Amino acid sequence: MKESNIRNKSFAFAIRIVKLYQYLCEHKKEFVLSKQLLRSGTSVGAMVREAEHAETKKDFVHKMAIAQKEINETIYWLELIAATDYIAKKEFESLYNDAVELIKILTTIIKNTKQNLITNH
To answer: pTM for the full model?
Structure first.
């Protein structure tokens, strides 16, 4: 249930990140920070997809934890890009809120899966 929610939300977030990357390159001529943002922001959904076919529950937790680290890194790049005036406050807040929602969902999935691992042993 939550896994498909995270799948959809991380994919939608990746689309927004790609569009922001395109904007930053085309209109702001910013190529370094935007590339970092692109890598981490799209990596979240890729790791969620990898986790869908994890070999074990521990492998699932590991892949989701990587996605969690990637979204946290993405928040850093968003904050830096906003602090250096590459994007407006409104755009930053919208993307930031989506990123925080993703990190909360990922944290819940990891916590619940770890708890199920303990309970089932």
So the answer is: 0.94
